[in-house]
Amino acid sequence: MENLVILSLARNNISSLAGLEAVGGTLEQLWMSYNDLQQLKELAELPKLKILYITHNRIRSWDEVARIAAHGSLQEVSFRGNPLVEDLEEDEDYFAKMIPCLPNLRKLDGEPIVRIEGEV
Fold first, then answer.
1. Which end of the chain is more exposed for a tag (fewer CB within 10 A), N or C?
2. NXF1/2/3/5-like leucine-rich repeat domain location, by residue (predicted)?
3. 7: three-class secondary structure by DSSP
């Protein structure tokens, strides 16, 4: 597993990312959709992570988005289906709220991010 680049653990009732540090030096894609994750603190152990699919978990806190934002290498995230997205008010724009939090993101939920020069 020392050369693992893509890890798919979707639909396994996983509630923690603990133990991923073993593949932290090589892992670039982590597919964790349809699990029971509430926190993403272990992402700090994955410095090469570029793609994170984490739809339909139990993430409620925008603090967890901040953990993702600290990841300079992250380019693509899928986050829909988590309570923090589903609980937004009707007039709140999910993309408008997420994109400023994730300045290096190129794709959010499969949609390309188009940035205007000079915008954050």
1. C
2. 27-110
3. strand
**Is 118 among the domain residues?**
no
Interatomic CA distance for residues 93 and 3, integer angstroms:
39
Q: What is the mean pLDDT of residues 101-116?
A: 87
Higher pLDDT, 98 or 117: 98
pTM summary value: 0.89
Give me the sign of the Cα torsion angle 73, 48, 22, 14. Answer: positive
pLDDT at 67: 86
Task: Give how far Cα 100 sits from Cα of 1, 14, 18, 90, 110, Å.
Answer: 35, 29, 28, 19, 17
Domain count within the chain? 1
